[in-house]
Every structure is written in structure tokens, then in C-alpha cells.
Amino acid sequence: MFRLSFGVACAAAAAACGTQPPSTPPPPVDSALPLDAPARNGAGPGGGTLDAFEFAIVGDTRPVNLDDTAHYPTAIVQQIWMDVEAESPHPAFAISTGDYMFASVNGSEQGPQLDAYLGARASFDGVVYPALGNHECNGFTDSNCGPAGADLEPPNYQLFLSRMIQPIGETLPYYVERFAATDKSWTAKMVFVAANAWDGTQAQWLGEILSEPTTYTFVVRHEPTMSGTAPGVGPSDQIIIKHPYTMIIAGHTHTYEHVPAYKTLIVGNGGAPLTSDADYGYVVIARQADGTIAVTSKDYMTKAVVDSFSVNADGSPATP
Predict the structure, then answer these.
(1) What is the pLDDT confidence band of residue 40, given thresholds at 50, 70 and 90?
(2) Is the dihedral of CA 77, 79, 80, 82 positive or negative?
(3) Would you say 288 and 302 are in contact if contact means Cβ atoms under 8 Å apart?
(4) How far apart are the first and last CA of the chain?
(5) Which of 265, 206, 210 is nearest to 236 (CA)?
(6) Under 8 Å between Cβ of 69 and 113
(7) Is the CB of residue 59 less than 8 Å from the CB of residue 191?
(8) N or C end of the chain: which has fewer CB within 10 A?
């Protein structure tokens, strides 16, 4: 358990206990909060301890047309992950926001499309934590997979679990990764919500996980609040707003957009057909020395900064 202790001064008047109260150093700007993070150096299954909190975001990456594996956007996806790999400092880990395939549940293109994606993603030499998208169910936004879901467990869902979730030590499409600073000055959790595999068990889990106190809380969900067709969007929003959080990270709409009113960052411009004039790209998130979180969106060809802003740990805009 990671805790920060500041010592307790003697009572108000020094004469009351015959000694001068000990001097107490001021707390850091970003006091650590309790969290059970894995005691490993670096990111891995379950999280880890980090010298610096910096990570990348990439998504969505599916082809334009159903079962069109021949035109998977491999070159774009690979360039993006090469850019992420070249970032300095090197991101401690990356997250992806869903939709790695566009394959019919009765066909056989799921595996080949994941081959294309994972091959391109291998350009990044770090762990990647993936979110479940609607295309990892049956493709429809209102689909709901899993043992209790109306759409059960089609090949899209099964292969997502076996090839993207199990390698990071997880077994379910929803999970949490816990991180803490090596100097115990901050803690963070990355909470992955599966809105297309929603049930009562996940709802209970989400409330319990969000109740864990951490300095920073990032909720990763494929669909943003504005795309409420997915079964788990509305119910999970009702749980999320009851707890402090830094930001919701989403994809689904194939663009880059910052939506301050919802404390939401949409990163869906990872190779899927674009829905705005935003080009393909990725985002880097980094904790600054003053405890604020800096968000930088970059173009995939030039690495030029497209957008940048900072927020406080509670998601409010940081003062410039």
C-alpha cells in the first residue's frame, strides 16, 4: 500500500508539552493517495511503479469496409506506433481505444485483421492496454457481448480476449491498471470500461474500483458520453459521475476532439476512416512537475503538435 505520511506536530502551544513542535515540511503539490500498485519497476500486468507518468493513446484502427482485410490501414497504423516509439521521453505504456477489426461474425477475417494490427503495433516497444470496441462484439454500436450479453461470444469477442486481453494478464474485457510513483508522490489508475459487454457484475465492479482513492483516475471507454447507444455508456456514466476522475478517454468517432464539458478526450484517428478534417495521429499524456496533466495531440506524418492543453488532477482546466 502506498501512503504518504507527514508527521504530527505536538499540540498548539509548545509549552503544553515542554518542547518546540517539530518543523513539518510542506506537502508536495500532488500528494500520493493509497493504492495497491504492483511492486514492479515499469508497466506490466496490473500496472506498476513509474519514475514518470507518461503514456500514449492510439485508436480507432479498423478498415473502411467489412471484411476488407486487404485494405487494412496497416501503413498508417504502423507509422503511428513508430511515432509513439520515437517519443522522448519514451512513454511508459500506451492505451488503445477500440475497433481493431471490421469483420463479420460469421466470416473468418477476425484473425487476419488482428494479425495486421498487432504486427503494426509491434513497432512500439512497450505494453499496450486495449479497450473493447463495438467491432470487438458484432460491430453494431448497440451490441452487447459476453456470457450474459444478448450477443453472446462471437469470434470477434473471443479473439479480442485471447489475443489482446490475456497477454496483459487480464481475463475480462473490463479491468484496471494501477500505477504509483517510485518516490510515492502520486498514484494513478486506468479504468477500462467495456460498454459493449455490460452487465450488473461490471457495474458493481466499476463502482468499487472508482471508490479507490488515487491522485489521478483515467476512465477508458470506447464510446464517449455523446455516443450513448452502447448498452454500457449511460449506466457507466451514472457511476463515473459519483466519483472523482481526471478524464474519460474514448474513441468510436474517428477524429481527435477535446470535450471539456464532459472531461473527455476522443482519440479515434488511428487509421479508421476519418469523420472530420482532423488527420491521423496520436496523443501523449504526461504528468508535469506541478502535478498537472499535459495533453498533446500530434500529427502522424510530421509529429507536429495539433492541440495541447493541461488539466488538474480533478480534470479542471489548469491555469496557464
Answers:
(1) confident
(2) positive
(3) no
(4) 34
(5) 206
(6) yes
(7) no
(8) C
